[in-house]
Each structure stands twice: as structure tokens, then as C-alpha cells.
Design brief:
The chain has 306 residues and is of the alpha/beta class. The chain folds into two domains: 70 residues, no CATH class; 227 residues, Muramoyl-pentapeptide Carboxypeptidase, domain 2. It has eight helices and ten strands. It is globular and about 65 Å long.
Length: 306
């Protein structure tokens, strides 16, 4: 029975390490350290689970606040700033992106989102630009599930802008709570390159079962169109070489450019967000706003209070 119990515990630890690694990159290693220390510290007290949990939260928060941003510099990446900074009209769509350390980018993409959000706010006062998944802080080639290409600091997903049923813009709000999987379906006559088959394996999930849970909000075309036009016009000056969006949405918004690309039928759909990809040259260069230094602290506070 003891061996069986130890085996089950080992499996549970392995699952936790794998899940935290997939979600946060470094969380698995930190959990393993917390488990070893907590197990030894609580050997006599019988509070192993509590000790491991407290240690993990403390070590993870401390690492995310101080160690991870410093290490990320060696990979040419910086964290996107937190919400509530007066100089910026953008923020993460959810605190989870920052709590999970999925908000690191090439400095040029930081400058891009600052410039884009400022332009949208100038054209439409009160508008808020939301970012979604970016990249993990370390190691080129380390995947950011479920994305196929967010592994080098050069990708950034931006949420669409949304309006109420009456057509009123909703600042800082989306259909999906995380920004993904609330798809803008093709209309009759729209381009549909994957209508026949997506092939297998594929990440082109429809997530139809989620639709019933989403609020009645629609894509706000003016702000979304302006953002896409700005990206194709000004994005190259920030290193952007490709912008991924579904063909039917680009056509609906009336935007065309050689930068606009279709990601293929086996990659995730891009009619719930816009992905910007920067060139590899110059990675790690560029000016970076000072306000970002408090981002992770604010993010962790937001996330732990959820």
C-alpha cells in the first residue's frame, strides 16, 4: 500500500510539473524545488501539501518579480508593461498572461504596441488595446502551447475591439474572457480556404460549444480596421515582417497588404485575434519604457486576487 501511495504521489508530481512547464515555462522547475524543500521541512508536521503550496507561490512570485525579467534579457526579451500606466492605452487582456510569464517580447514589439495603442487612442479617445499571448521569457525554440510559432520572442497576439449589440464600443472588453476562441465566422461568399478539410493533426479548432457562454458582442470594425491598417503601414518600421489574420476578415475590413498572411489550415484560427511577427534581425535592441519594471508585481497581485 505504501509503495502504491508513493507511486501515485510521484505521478501527481510529474503531472503538476508537466502542466506548470507547459503553462508558464519555469513553473515546473520551481514546483519541483518547492516540493523537495516542502517535503523535507514538513516531514514531522504532516502539512506537506500546505508547505509545498506556500513555498511554490513564494518562490514563483519572487522569481517572476526579480529573476525572470533579468534572465529574459539574455534571450533578447522584455516584459510587456502592466495595466494602469497612464502613458499607455493598452494592457493585457487578462492578468493570467503576465502571471504565467507569457508576456515577453522582442523590444521592437513592445515599441510597436505602445505606438499602435497611442494611435488608436488618438483616433478614438478612450480606446484600449489589449494584448494576448506573446512568448515565454527564455530559450528560443521553447514552445508556448497551443501556439506553433510563439517560441522566439518575435510573436505578439492582439485582441480585436468589440461593441455591444447596439454598436457601442466596449473599451477593454472582449467576447471571450481570455480573448481566444470567440471566432468571427466567414459570411456567405467570404474566402474560406479551409472549407473542405483542415487535415490532421490540426490546431484549427472551431470551439462551437463555447459560443453559448459568450456575451452578445460583435467585432467593432472601425477600431479593428484602423489597427490593421496601422500595422500594415507602420509595422515594418518596428520590424514586423508578417501579420496573420484570416482572409475573410481582412477582406471584410477592406485591408490588403503583402504583409497579411494566412497561417494555413493546420495552425490555430486567426479570426479571433491578430498575430504580428517581427524580423529576426535586431532582436534584443531598441528602447524600452521604464514603466514596465513594475509589471510583474502588479500582474501577480492581480492574479493572486482573482
Amino acid at each position: 500500500m505504501l509503495a502504491r501511495g508513493n507511486g501515485a504521489a510521484a505521478v501527481a508530481v510529474a503531472i503538476a510539473v508537466a502542466a506548470l512547464t507547459l503553462l508558464t515555462q519555469l513553473g515546473g522547475v520551481i514546483f519541483l524545488v518547492a516540493f523537495v524543500i516542502g517535503k523535507r521541512a514538513s516531514a514531522q508536521g504532516g502539512l506537506e501539501a500546505l508547505a509545498v503550496t506556500v513555498l511554490f507561490v513564494g518562490l514563483y512570485a519572487g522569481s517572476s518579480l526579480s529573476v525572470v525579467p533579468a534572465l529574459a534579457k539574455f534571450s533578447g526579451r522584455v516584459p510587456l508593461p502592466c495595466s494602469g500606466v497612464p502613458a499607455h492605452a493598452y494592457r493585457a487582456a487578462s492578468p493570467l498572461y503576465r502571471v504565467f510569464n507569457r508576456h515577453y517580447v522582442d523590444p521592437r514589439l513592445l515599441e510597436l504596441v505602445e505606438a499602435l495603442s497611442s494611435e488608436i487612442a488618438r483616433a478614438y479617445p478612450g480606446a484600449v488595446t489589449l494584448y494576448l499571448d506573446a512568448n515565454f521569457p527564455l530559450l528560443d525554440g521553447f514552445p508556448l502551447p497551443p501556439h506553433l510559432s510563439h517560441h522566439d520572442g518575435r510573436k505578439l497576439d492582439l485582441a480585436f475591439y468589440y461593441a455591444s449589440e447596439q454598436g457601442t464600443y466596449l473599451p477593454g472588453l472582449m467576447r471571450s474572457p481570455i480573448g481566444y476562441w470567440a471566432f468571427e465566422e466567414p459570411r456567405p461568399g467570404d474566402p474560406a480556404p479551409c472549407a473542405e478539410s483542415t487535415g490532421w493533426p490540426t490546431l484549427r479548432w472551431d470551439m462551437v460549444f463555447l459560443e453559448r457562454f459568450y456575451p452578445q458582442r460583435s467585432l467593432e470594425p472601425e477600431r479593428t480596421r484602423t489597427a490593421l491598417q496601422w500595422l500594415v503601414r507602420s509595422g515594418p518600421s518596428f520590424g514586423v515582417e508578417k501579420i496573420f489574420i484570416e482572409p475573410h476578415l481582412a477582406a471584410r475590413l477592406g485591408v490588403s497588404s503583402r504583409l497579411l498572411r494566412f497561417q494555413g489550415c493546420r495552425a490555430a484560427r486567426h479570426d479571433d485575434q491578430i498575430t504580428s511577427k517581427s524580423r529576426p534581425d535586431g532582436s534584443g535592441q531598441g528602447s524600452v519604457s521604464r514603466e514596465r519594471k513594475n509589471c510583474t508585481r502588479s500582474a501577480l497581485s492581480d492574479g493572486l486576487s482573482m
